[in-house]
Amino acid sequence: MNFDASPDVVPNGPDGTALPPSLQLMALFEGRRLTPTQRRIAQCLVERTTEAAYLSGNELAALANVSQPSVTRFAVALGYDGYPDLRRTLRALASTGAAESPTGARRNEWQAAVLAEARNLTTLSEKLADPEAIEEAGRLLMRSRPLVVLGQRTAAPLALYFGYFAAKFHPDVRVIGEGGSTVGDRLDQARAASGETLFAFVLPRYPRESLEALDLAKQVGFTTVVVTDSAIGPVADHADLVLAAAVGRGLVFDSHAGLMVLTTLIMQSMCDAAPAESQARLEAFEETVSQRNLFVA
To answer: 40, 180, 207, 260: least surrounded by Cβ within 10 Å?
Structure first.
């Protein structure tokens, strides 16, 4: 989702209503060509919209682990005169978020975590107002025979979830969950078998081996489609197409409700890309299930 947004204009959603503050902030970034350092600053701002609005340039630089001049260059790249000018927009967005926040009794940490995931899902819904990216992903994944799926460390369960269901309507899904040099072997094998697309899940803390696998896949001729938590995060430079859904960060470990929903939507898009073939395979699967009496309901 890209917006042609000027620094002084806060974009609205497709129905004319104001977007959530984090999505308004994303709108200032996604239409721009940002360097990896600038993407790090942008991601920091998206993750801490309210907090960052009241930080100095030096404090934001320390939070994003970049230099103070990098923060200034980042603001200028977005069309502002400098960081103080950008901070005025950040404060306006933060105040919008505060106005939208529910008042009343203080919520406990469990409720807060669930509400945070609900906001992530709302943001995902707003992004999907423009379905071009997810539709393109569906076409690329459905066309690739075989389809290689990569998910290491935290992302392994999502890759397995996708692989299990995608195998019901796609003829050749190959999931890579391990690391090491065998990843290259399996990529070579799939490419030799005419595979065109690598579908990867890469989640915080972004395993180095996953980024290296993406680079290797591109070297041998794969198109890389990646599901991650941020379109401006460290994965973006390693992917041809990025689909993002925020993770919940309020607990000891990240929660991935938005990513699970996005994964299911991608499978729907794949089925829509080849409806007759998908339906035939799903019906054949159901016939097998019935013959083998696999389930109780």
So the answer is: 180
